[in-house]
């Protein structure tokens, strides 16, 4: 088996363990009449930004935490927090701040026992290997958190597909919102 086949096999194993009902529950919190904020650090942050971009294509009002034009979080907003370990200090801090302001927090993490998952209203578990996993906990041939990042990207894209079908948004309509 070549390296690319091995990577694809790992991703398939992780994604097949994600509870699709948890995606439906996450989707129930995402509505066009709510502002959505995404937050993540490093590559997880890049996956969160990709999700934000796709939500924009679907017609949602979406912001990336930390950008210069991001407004203040308010009650009834939704925060999607992405952290493989669930321990990224800024992500956990932002999630807790959002909860204090009355926002709903959705966590995408591999660690259901993490501070992020505990502070969230709901968590979608994406059980990919992350940077600190070693020994028996390391289930990937890839470096650092690559497996989580790749898998969460697919899961978030799956959530977007779910939303597009629920909301009746065609590919043509989404394309019309693309730069």
Automatic annotation (TrEMBL):
It holds the Pfam family SIS. Residues 26-169 form the SIS domain. Residues 18-70 form the Rhodanese domain. GO terms for biological process: carbohydrate derivative metabolic process. Keywords: Isomerase. Transmembrane segments: none annotated. The keyword Hydrolase does not apply. One of its GO terms (molecular function) is isomerase activity. InterPro entries: PHI/rmpB (IPR017552), Rhodanese-like_dom (IPR001763), SIS_dom (IPR001347), SIS_dom_sf (IPR046348). It comes from the Bacteria. The keyword Isomerase applies. Belongs to the SIS family. PHI subfamily. This is 6-phospho-3-hexuloisomerase.
């Amino acid at each position: 088996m070549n390296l690319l086949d091995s990577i694809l096999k790992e991703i398939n194993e992780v994604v097949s363990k994600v509870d699709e009902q948890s995606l439906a529950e996450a989707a129930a919190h995402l509505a066009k009449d709510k502002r959505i904020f995404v937050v993540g650090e490093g590559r997880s942050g890049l996956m969160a930004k990709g999700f934000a971009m796709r939500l924009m294509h679907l017609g949602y009002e979406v912001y990336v935490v930390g950008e210069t034009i991001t407004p203040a979080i308010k009650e009834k907003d939704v925060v999607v927090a992405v952290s493989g370990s669930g321990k990224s200090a800024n992500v956990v801090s932002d999630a807790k701040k959002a909860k204090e302001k009355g926002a709903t927090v959705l966590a995408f993490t591999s660690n259901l026992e993490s501070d992020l998952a505990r502070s969230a209203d709901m968590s979608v578990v994406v059980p990919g290997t992350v940077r600190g996993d070693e020994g028996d906990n390391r289930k990937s041939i890839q470096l650092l958190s690559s497996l989580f990042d790749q898998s969460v990207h697919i899961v978030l894209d799956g959530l977007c597909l779910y939303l597009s079908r629920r909301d009746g948004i065609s590919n043509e309509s989404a394309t019309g919102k693309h730069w």
